[in-house]
Each structure stands twice: as structure tokens, then as C-alpha cells.
Amino acid sequence: MTASKPTLRSVVRGIGSYLPARRVTNADLEKIVDTTDDWIVQRTGIRSRHIAGEGETTSQLATHAARAALEDAGLQAADIDLLIVATSTPDYTFPSTATQVQAAIGMNNGAAFDLQAVCSGFVFAMATADKFLVSGSHRRALVIGAETFSRLLDWTDRTTCVLFGDGAGAVVLEAREGTGATSDRGILTSHLRSDGRHREKLYVDGGPSSTGTVGHLRMAGRDVFRHAVGMVTDVMTDAFAATGTTAEDLDWFVPHQANRRIIDASADKLGIASSKIVITVDQHGNTSAASIPLALAVAKSDGRIKEGQLVMIEAMGGGFTWGSALIRW
């Protein structure tokens, strides 16, 4: 019997995060918009969020997270040959935020580019980096989700301005040989979807080609909620089917931190125990592409996520876009 051919896996080697210093509570928002702490918590589970300071940019947040992830991995910028930043709030129309981070950390080789899938951006970026690494074309990737969504908000719209925050999270992925089994460390499978017919449900009403302005975020909250649970549970079911695993096999479920009710409904639909869910939406709000790596960093630093454990990440964002990835940590 011949031995099976080794399979390359994208293994998480390091993780880092960064939150702006300014923390804004629901009580703070009560002073500037017609809302209450009870109203926000009941509908979203959010109690506070962090807001970037004046002059503090997405690339700066991303750079802090990148350096923390490199330190955690025991690597230097020169060890990275691929850098992807998932963001909807770039510093500039161009050049990419990724190239700004590349320069800031001293990475002078490889490729750096942005990826835009709104709140699903980090999942899309992880899946993209995985394809580069398992193909053998690149060895190590720095994948970052970073946002300054506060710059897109209409602070007179109480239905949206209370939901979002700023921050950044990063992971270092490294290509390593595995056996091809689900016991291998690394990204085991990823599943991505998009449906552009839903643009009007969650979008920004500006852009360089349409209005020449940045614009503000607009959302039909009830419609987003109605679609979210079905969409994200479908791609999670696909991940289980692709790997022969079940919800019971999960050690941790780390969803996009948009709304506590969406998170709980998705977990209930798939039979994921509440004790396995990592929740940070109460402290971070919805940080779009940054929310999953921020949550992963919290659960890693407090000792919940350990090497060898099975972790599911999933997200849904404007577009609509949605996706999942199953990772053996």
C-alpha cells in the first residue's frame, strides 16, 4: 500500500489585534442621538464600541494588529510573502491599504493587496490566502481585517450609528504539510457566496464613480436579519459536509459579530451549544471585516482557543456576501 501524498495546509501560526483607545458606551450615544442603552442591548447585544481618533486611519489600525500577529508568530516582516487586507474603509481610493501596511512593517517582498467583501471580508481573505498557500506559490501570509466604519456612519441615524465600531485583527498563516485528514492543523475547507441582487438592503450611498463622495451606510435591518440566518447556516452546513464533521465536533464557533440575535439564531438552527460561541459584539460592536479576527484574538489570549481545536468562522456582509471556513487550530 503506497503512502498518501502530503497535502499542504494553511496553518494559523500567530494572531494579533488592535482597538482604538476611545471607547464609546451606549450611555455616551444617548447624549448625541435619540436612543437608550436598553434599546440597543435588547436589539443587538452591543454595550460599547471603540472609535478611531482624529487622524487615526485604517492602515494604522491594521499595522498595529499586523505587528502583534508577527510577534505572536515569532516572525519578521521579511518572512511574509503575501499580505491581504480585508476592508471597506481604505485610507485612499488607491493605493491599497495593504501596501500602506506593507511599507509600515518593512515588508519589501511578495505581494500585498486589498479585498472588499464588507463584513465577510476576513473570511474571503482567509480563503484567498489559503488558495495561494496550498498551491505552493507562497509560504506565509498575513491576513488582516481592519475597519474605520465610524467614518461611514450618519450619526443622526439611530438605527445604524449605534451598531458599528472600529478595530483591526490579523493572523499569520503558514503553509505546512499535512495528511489530508480533518485532524490536520490548518484551514480544512472554506465556502464563499455572493448575491448582488440584495444591494439596496445594505450599502453605502456614495463612491468615487457614482457621487464622488464617501457617502453614508444605509441598511434595511429587518431584511438583513431575515436573510442572515439562512445564508450563514447554509455555508456552515456545506463546511460540515465537506469535512465529514458535525456541529458537535466544533470546539468553538466564532461568528461575525454583528448582532447577538443573529448569532444565537444561527447557533440554535445548527445545534451549536451556547458554551461554544465566542461573543465580543457586546464590547466591540460590529467592526465589519475586523470582527472575526478580533474575536479570535480575544479567545486565543484568554486561553479558550487551543492548538488542535476545531474552530468555525462565518460572516455575512453587504452585497450580499457570505462565507464560512473550518479551521483546525
Can you tell me the CATH topology of the largest domain?
Peroxisomal Thiolase, Chain A, domain 1
Give the class from helix and strand content and strand pairing.
alpha/beta
Q: Provide the CATH top-level class of the largest domain.
A: Alpha Beta
Separation, N- and C-terminal Cα atoms: 30 Å
**Number of helices in the DSSP assignment:** 9
**Major sheet:** 5 strands, mixed
CATH superfamily of the largest domain: Thiolase/Chalcone synthase
The structural domain count equals 2
> From the alpha-carbon coordinates, what is the Rg to the nearest angstrom?
19 Å
- What's the number of extended β-strand segments? 13
Q: Which of globular, elongated, flat, extended, rod-shaped describes the shape?
A: globular
Helix content: 25-40%
**If strands are numbered along the chain, what order do they take across the biggest sheet?**
1-7-6-4-5
Given as residue ranges, the uncertain stretches (5+ residues, pLDDT < 50) are none
pLDDT averaged residue by residue: 97
Based on the structure given, which CATH architecture of the largest domain is correct? 3-Layer(aba) Sandwich
Strand content: 25-35%
* H/E topology pattern: EEHHEHEHEHEEEEEHEHHHEE
Task: List the keywords.
single chain; 329 residues; alpha/beta; Peroxisomal Thiolase, Chain A, domain 1; four-stranded mixed β-sheet; 9 helices; 13 strands; 31% helix; globular
Outline the structure in words.
The protein has helices at 26-30, 37-44, 58-73, 97-105, 121-135, 221-243, 260-270, 281-284, 291-301, and strands at 7-18, 22-25, 48-51, 82-86, 111-115, 140-148, 166-178, 186-194, 202-204, 217-219, 252-255, 310-317, 321-328. The model has no long low-confidence stretch (mean pLDDT 97). The chain is α/β, with parallel strands linked by helices and 329 residues long. The relative contact order is 0.19. It folds into two domains: 7-178, 3-Layer(aba) Sandwich (Peroxisomal Thiolase, Chain A, domain 1); 186-328, Peroxisomal Thiolase, Chain A, domain 1.
